């Protein structure tokens, strides 16, 4: 059974129809990558899953339960974390406060915190600093750390490498690989090299519709398909 | 401007502004006794305006709601407190400090209780249907302010009402040729206590953490699993109660109130929220103190400019810092 099942999801933003019937399944475990050109509807898909925009019609099923129309907070409490494209960091709060806000009880599970320190040493270094003073890469680390400070079944991550230095991107890839051992990741990414190094399964979205689904290995092997769907030259 | 900001930051940042204002005023006024009296009056006024404005700032910052009806709570707080004080006239005039204090506490608590109930009703019936629609927010909350003024007219009439202060808050402390009204000191201390309480709430509790985060990014707080709309009701009710408390204190300060009190205070309250920076309690306090001091100093030095002083102050600060002195979102 798939962890997340999206069927015929249509989302309008204002008077514009952005998603025209998106359907795909995210299997449990590993990294599922959603690829597509700019403006194809990737971010809208993630936001619709989180209930930040309401799909109508269409359905989102998570662990066999229909979560369509639930309030965003309710969806998050089902075990879905969201790392938006702008990272969603609270700049006026310290690193510690950003993380404590994401805990259920207001206190840290020390084992998880230790794991976060290992994945992102900068978190420990800048623990008491206000988040606005962090660099772009450190903010992204904090955003991801916030998503895994509690056990989650699924993390939606929107373009985590955007604007980051190559060394930070490499560190991020390493971290995602480790996180994906215990948590499913639905990753939206424009950086194909980053995406293919992580993805197990994938879908391509174009003009608000899913036009291809399959394994990343098959997609990487099919240069013609890459060229046709993403304009990637061989 | 950039250089001025950097230099100021080195010496304590925008928190130095009230001190700088006081120093400039001291030089211009010349007479130390008048300066002390004006400074205490400005601080007291600032603290009362802070009580009225702090809730509005949080509501503005947390939910992006433009509540022009906020000052209705100020009016009702003033009239409810005045009525309670009038009903307890015997206690007010008594020589017993305990009876005096009891009358005052009951008046302030009545205003706060009214603010809580009215705030809850206002949020549920008037604000909730117009979330995310600024134009309708402005129209409906302005309408609510007008209706509330008419309700006050219907209940208390149009004649100005004299507000009696408790005996123990009458008079002044005299130091040489300096006279400081007891009520002003009380208003300052109460405002300071409320500020400390709010500071602790916002910085030492989980609810406070949620409010601060919500002011910055509502969507993200919801994505972390918290219902910001439920939190907002609490913040709105708290803001209404504080506005009513501010109104009650203001009634005792001016000692003569009319149904137009809310509309009169609305402009000052909005100026304070805007120059302080949206969603920031420290900014609101700073803005309120600067407005209070400026109003008193200008009223003494150039009375003809006193009406325009707040507007000029707001223009100057916004030209320097377009997001206000201490905005919550960086």
Short account of what is shown:
Chain A has helices at 42-49, 72-77, 95-101, 110-119, 121-125, 136-148, 166-179, 192-198, 216-221, 223-230; strands at 4-13, 16-26, 31-35, 59-62, 65-66, 80-83, 154-158, 184-188, 201-206, 209-215. With 234 residues, chain A is an alpha/beta fold. Chain B is 76% helix and 4% strand.
Radius of gyration of chain A: 17 Å
How many domains of chain B?
Answer: 1
Number of strand segments of chain A: 10
Q: CATH architecture of chain B, please?
A: Orthogonal Bundle
Determine the structural class of chain A based on helices, strands and strand pairing.
alpha/beta
CATH superfamily of chain A: P-loop containing nucleotide triphosphate hydrolases
In CATH, the topology of chain B is named ABC transporter involved in vitamin B12 uptake, BtuC
> Can you give the helix content of chain B as a percent range?
over 70%
The interface involving the most residues is between: A-B, 24 and 21 residues
Outline of chain A, from the CA principal axes? globular
Q: What is the number of domains of chain A?
A: 1
Q: In sequence order, what are the helices and strands of chain A, one letter per element?
A: EEEHEEHEHHHHEHEHEEHH
Shape of chain B: globular
Protein structure class of chain B: mainly alpha
Distance between the termini of chain B: 18 Å
Can you give keywords for this protein?
heterodimer, A: 234 residues, alpha/beta, Rossmann fold, 6-stranded mixed β-sheet, 4-stranded antiparallel β-sheet, 10 helices, 10 strands, 36% helix, 25% strand, globular, B: 330 residues, mainly alpha, ABC transporter involved in vitamin B12 uptake, BtuC, two-stranded antiparallel sheet
């Amino acid at each position: 059974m798939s962890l997340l099942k999206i069927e015929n999801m249509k989302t309008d933003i204002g008077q514009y129809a952005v998603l025209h019937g998106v359907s795909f399944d995210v299997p449990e475990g590993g990294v599922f990558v959603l690829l597509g050109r700019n403006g194809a509807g990737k971010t809208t898909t993630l936001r619709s899953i989180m209930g930040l925009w309401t799909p109508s019609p269409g359905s989102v099923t998570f662990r066999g339960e229909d979560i369509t129309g639930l309030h965003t907070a309710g969806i998050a409490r089902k075990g879905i974390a969201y790392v938006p494209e702008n990272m969603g960091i609270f700049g006026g709060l310290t690193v510690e406060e950003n993380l404590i806000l994401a805990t259920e009880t207001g206190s840290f599970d020390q084992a998880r915190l230790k794991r976060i320190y290992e994945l992102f040493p900068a978190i420990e270094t800048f623990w008491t600093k206000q988040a606005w003073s962090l660099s772009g890469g450190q903010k992204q680390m904090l955003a991801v750390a916030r998503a895994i400070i509690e056990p989650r079944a699924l993390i939606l991550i929107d373009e985590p490498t955007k604007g980051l230095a190559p060394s930070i991107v490499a560190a991020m890839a390493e971290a995602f690989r480790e996180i994906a051992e215990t948590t499913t990741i639905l990753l939206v990414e424009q950086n194909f090299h980053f995406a293919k190094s992580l993805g197990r399964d994938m879908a391509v979205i174009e003009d608000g519709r899913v036009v291809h689904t399959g394994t990343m290995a098959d997609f990487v092997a099919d240069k013609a398909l890459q060229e046709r769907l993403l304009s990637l030259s061989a | 401007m950039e250089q001025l900001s950097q230099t100021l930051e080195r010496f304590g940042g925008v928190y130095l502004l009230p001190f700088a204002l006081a120093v400039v005023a001291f030089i211009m006024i010349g007479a130390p006794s008048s300066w002390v009296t004006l400074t205490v009056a400005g601080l007291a006024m600032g603290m009362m305006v802070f009580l009225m404005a702090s809730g509005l700032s949080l509501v503005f910052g947390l939910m992006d709601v433009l509540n022009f009806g906020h000052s209705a709570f100020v009016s009702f707080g003033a009239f409810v407190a005045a009525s309670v004080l009038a009903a307890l006239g015997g206690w007010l005039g008594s020589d017993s400090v305990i009876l005096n204090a009891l009358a005052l506490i009951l008046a302030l608590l009545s205003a706060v209780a009214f603010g809580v109930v009215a705030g809850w009703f206002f949020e549920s019936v008037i604000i909730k249907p117009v979330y995310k629609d600024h134009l309708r927010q402005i129209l409906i909350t302005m309408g609510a302010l007008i209706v509330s003024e008419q309700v006050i007219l219907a209940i208390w009439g149009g004649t100005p009402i004299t507000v009696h202060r408790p005996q123990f808050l009458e008079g002044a402390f005299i130091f040489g040729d300096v006279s400081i009204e007891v009520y002003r000191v009380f208003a300052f201390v109460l405002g300071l206590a409320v500020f400390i309480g709010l500071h602790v709430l916002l910085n030492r509790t989980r609810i406070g953490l949620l409010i601060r985060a919500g002011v910055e990014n509502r969507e993200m707080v919801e994505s972390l699993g918290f219902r910001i709309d439920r939190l907002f009701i609490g913040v709105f009710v708290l803001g209404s109660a504080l506005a009513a408390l501010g109104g009650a204190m203001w009634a005792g300060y001016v000692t003569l109130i009319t149904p137009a009190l809310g509309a009169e205070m609305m402009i000052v309250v909005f100026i304070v929220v805007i120059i302080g920076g949206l969603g920031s309690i420290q900014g609101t306090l700073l803005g309120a103190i600067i407005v209070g001091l400026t109003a008193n100093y200008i009223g003494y030095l150039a009375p003809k400019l006193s009406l325009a002083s707040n507007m000029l102050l707001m223009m100057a600060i916004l030209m320097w810092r377009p997001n206000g002195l201490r905005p919550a979102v960086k």
